[in-house]
Amino acid sequence: MSNKPAAITAVQGTAIPLPGNDIDTDRIIPARYLRSVTFEGLGTEVFKDERFNDDGSAKAHPFNEDKYAGAALLIVGRNFGCGSSREHAPQAIMRFGIKAIIGESFAEIFAGNCTSLGIPVCTADEQTIEELQELVQNDPRLVFDLDLEAQILNFGGKSISVDISPAAKTALLAGTWNTLDELLQNEAAIEEVHRRLPSFL
After folding, report:
1. Cα separation of 41 and 119, whole Å?
2. pLDDT tens string 80-98
3. Which residues contact 82 (CB under 8 A, 6 or more apart)?
4. What pLDDT is recorded for position 30?
5. Where are the domains positioned within the chain?
């Protein structure tokens, strides 16, 4: 029985607009949560310090707004996920319910970590991102359909082109985005390579 993850060809749903550039992984998930043995429960802690005061009262933040509840897409600005390479950041975003992220640009390691979790990370120019965020702010129930193969984002009778790393696109469409799973599937071939290596190695 194959453990191969499902191919990801599209993501549908409403979105959360998250304005601002250079949002780093420390803001996405505070360092104190890196002590977690598992990633379970991180979804409730995403943007914890930006969403809540020390006394637990809520701050104004898109992730706290009921009108964006249940969103599947996140629309962000430039250089999202910069800073430390902690995997906890995309894990927390995924466990909050986000299935795809569209932004102006992303930190390379963050984008790679997202892909390995099956989260498509797509880019568009600054003006397009600002227009998308404004659209969602004005109509939080607007439904998006992200077609990864065509690299098209459909919404409200309109379509725009988005970019995605060719390697990430291939992995998502082929269902090989889970790198650990991919290694397990190729275990026999890897063992054969090791068997043929000279013994002194």
Report:
1. 18
2. 999 987 788 999 999 999 9
3. 22, 23, 24, 25, 107, 110
4. 83
5. 10-174
Q: Of 142, 138, 145, 133, whose CA–CA distance to 99 is shortest?
A: 145
Residue 104 tokens, joined: 């102006």
Extract long-range pairs of 151-156: CB within 8 Å, 24+ residues apart.
Answer: 151/122, 153/102, 153/122, 153/124
Averaged pLDDT score across all residues of the chain:
88
Compute the CA torsion angle 127, 106, 65, 96 (nearest 10 deg).
150
For residue 16 the two structure tokens come to 């959360």
For the segment(s) 10-174, the CATH number from 3.40.630.30, 2.40.330.10, 3.40.50.10300, 3.20.19.10 is: 3.20.19.10
Per-residue model confidence (pLDDT) at position 186: 44
Measured CA to CA, the distance from residue 175 to residue 170 in angstroms comes to: 8
Hey, what amino acid is at 24? D
Statement: residue 128 has pLDDT above 80: yes
